[in-house]
Amino acid sequence: MKSSNIAWEHEKNYIFWCRKCNAPLLDEQCGICHEKGAQIELSQPGDVRFSSQHERKIIDSLILDSFGSNPLAGKLILLNKIPGEDKTDEILVDGIRFGVLRFDMKELTFKLDLLIEGASALINSGIPNKLIKISSGGRHLSGKNIDGSEVIECSNDIRKGDTVLVIAKNLSGFGISYRDSSELKNPGQALKIKKIEAQRVSFNSGNPSMDEIIRANAPHMKRLVKDAVNTIKGIANQKEFRETPVYVSFSGGKDSLTTLDLTRSAVKKPIKVFFANTGIEFPETVEFVRRFCKENDIELIEVETKEAFWENLASFGPPAKDFRWCCKVCKLAPINTVIEECTRGGGKCLTIDGKRKYESFSRARIAPKEENPFIPGQVSVFPIRDWRAIEVWLYIYYRKLEYNPLYELGFERVGCWLCPAELSAEYYRFGELHPELFGRWNDYLLNWAKEHGLADEFIEHGFWRWKTLPPKMMRLAQELKISTTLKGKKEEFGIVVTGGVSPCKTGGYTMEGKVSGLTLDEACNIANILGENTFSEDLGVLLVKTKGSSVKIFSSGHISVNAPGKEEALSLFENTAKQLMRVKKCTKCGVCLKVCQVEAIEIEPGLKIGKECTRCGKCTESCVVVKYFDRLLPDFKDKKKLLEEAKNVR
Questions:
Q1: For the residues 111-137, what does the mean pLDDT come to?
Q2: I need a surface site. Which of 104, 389, 407, 501 has the fewest CB within 10 A?
Q3: Which helix (H) or strand (E) holds 262?
Q4: Which CATH superfamily is domain 494-646 in?
């Protein structure tokens, strides 16, 4: 987690709040009253946003259920995404860090955790419910258990386990009750105080409109928009792009919507929009993208992959956060084909993209401009890379842009509806909105789990979304007593190490293995990328020679690698295994065709690499099968220890 913090160390983890206008500010000075706002610290990464209608309903319901009335009703609520098991957000209201809204992965429902400022504000608002007064005082009550003899009075609606508001002389805070109201004053432990302080926090009576919030932040947003527009203009007017159209990557999400509108303001030449319709997009997203482009007279290039995901599912299994094979199969390869039109003859394709630093740790260091390593000739520009979510929304509201309806229905992201990066809270929300689609995927997951000896709870609690579970999910599995060990399922194709690296009598070092489910013809089809090769049908052996090393693949499935040194033998064996998997599990996505500069690759009717191959390695680097080699071949992964031990053989 340390590395994650480093990624955000230079970002703004705060906003300001104008107490007079009761408006959130992105600069210190309010654009309406010109007074300085109070600085509000945020948990990292600080990608604060306005709450959606659905999120507001959840918050209102939780507060009302807990305390009998809701002082937050009708108020502006901001949410700041923070680390947690699933959907977890800080709640900010009136410049107060009120509490945390989180989706509980055990009970699969939303919970509200109060913070000290929220508890104090509730008490000062006159909330009569879930309230306990105690006789204790002093500065060291936080975290302590309170005896029933110290309870002066309490409301009559308290039950065991409730979060309660606590008043202790000049202190206010909150805790957890160990008893029902009728027993709270009895001797013995009555409640545990979570946090209690002397500060007095109150809600603000003002309730600004969205127009007022826009005005309060107008100077900041004008500078931000000007910089983004100038970035687009500056690159679009460069000589290499001057005569070509400007393309915008449009996913139907808020960031790409803002980027598209900024691009339309920045350039006067034709704009074309890419939309990758993966076949598993939200129906609302597909409808929105088509309608928006039609109503705004924007040329839409909709790249459809239809059933590509489902066709490859049998080979790859369910995608995971650390195993996103679907992105290359369903997005990269189809868009690659379209971009090829404007990059023929060494041309460049300028794409304006809405990626932002704050979206994830992996995007925290996005450069202003990048060349796509998987799509030669495509240059991507990220004009809003430094924007936070609240800035994106302020722009959308100011420009009065129609946006994807999914945002108001409870979705923070609007990618593919079965994406493993989707939170469980959103996954189950999708089930409420589209039960038929949800049922198709959930049934597949349950059957997949059964085949691998896993309980339904493994799917229900979202463990399928990782190949290698992070610590938080391992802890959850232990608490729920859910097994996360997949039982081996015999596959048609497999590679195992049968002998580690060892000295060879004829010189050098050898390493041996066994491949199943692969014909020699298929091995021959990939052999040119390994080296110069000869095939003997009579002997049933394929011989590959490269840089003083050799590989022999026999019709029996036996593999023998010989190399001058231990490291070379180890590396050659692993590369051979990867190439054999490529030819067996090729998805026909076509990415390798685009990166091969000598046109040595064919994928129909199956993968074949011709004699023209220069062994530059670019097609291997771009291959989704190779990228997820260890994930696709768990039996080989289990032999990694043997491979590591092979390095130490003398």
A1: 93
A2: 104
A3: helix 254-266
A4: TATA-Binding Protein (3.30.310.10)
Higher-pLDDT residue of 335, 462: 462
DSSP, res 141:
-
CA 439, chain centre distance (Å): 23
The per-residue pLDDT for 163 is 95
* Residue pair 48/79 in contact by the 8 Å Cβ criterion: yes
- Integer Cα distance of 403 and 417 in angstroms: 18
Strands 532-536 and 541-546: antiparallel
3-state secondary structure 592-629: HHHHCCCCCEECCCCCEECCCCCCCCHHHHHCHHHHCH
Structure tokens at 119: 């508890």
Tokens of 190: 């009555």
Give CA–CA dist 624/248, Å, rounded.
Answer: 25
Q: Reduced to 3 states, what is the DSSP secondary structure of residue 502?
A: strand
Consecutive H or E run containing 380: strand 378-381
Name residue, tokens 């842009």: 401
The span from the CA of 431 to the CA of 341, in Å, is: 39
Question: Taking all residues of the chain, what is their mean pLDDT, rounded to a whole number?
Answer: 88
* Domain boundaries of the chain, sorted by first residue: 11-197, 217-409, 434-480, 494-646
* Lowest-confidence segment of 80-89, 138-147, 435-444 by average pLDDT: 138-147
CB of 442 closer than 8 Å to CB of 431: yes
Classify burial at 128, counting beta carbons within 10 Å of its beta carbon; exposed 0-12, middle 13-18, buried 19 or more: exposed
Q: What is the pTM of this model?
A: 0.82
Q: Would you call the peptide bond into 376 cis, given omega within 30 degrees of 0 as the criterion?
A: no
The percentage of residues in the chain with a pLDDT greater than 90, rounded to a whole number, is 65
Q: Rounded to whole angstroms, what are the CA distances from 474 to 103, 109, 477?
A: 17, 20, 5
Contact 21, 32 (CB under 8 A): yes
**Tell me, what DSSP letter sits at residue 85?**
S
Residue 29, helix vs strand vs coil: strand
Distance CA 297, CA 59 (A): 39
Domain 217-409 and domain 494-646, same fold? Reply is no
Q: At a CB cut-off of 8 Å and minimum separation 6, what does 92 contact?
A: 24, 40, 48, 77, 78, 79, 80, 98
Which pair of structure tokens corresponds to residue 48? 């604060």
Spatial separation of the C-alpha atoms in residues 66 and 62, rounded to whole Å: 6
Residues 648, 650: Cα–Cα separation, whole Å: 6
Query: Measured between alpha carbons, how far is 381 from 235 in angstroms, rounded to an integer?
Result: 8
- Would you say 297 and 324 are in contact if contact means Cβ atoms under 8 Å apart? no
Distance CA 128, CA 69 (A): 9
Whether domain 11-197 has CATH 3.40.830.10: no
Neighbour-count burial for 457-481, b at 16+ CB within 10 Å, e otherwise: ebbbbbbbbbbebeeebeebbeeee
| Cα separation values, 107 from 112, 165, 425, 427, 435, Å | 13, 24, 11, 15, 20
Helices (H), 116-252: 116-124, 210-216, 218-236
Task: Please state, in angstroms and rounded to a whole number, the distance separating the CA atoms of residues 151 and 133.
Answer: 6
Q: CATH code for 217-409? A: 3.40.50.620
Helix (H, G, I), strand (E, B) or coil at 337: helix
Which H or E run contains 314?
Answer: helix 308-316
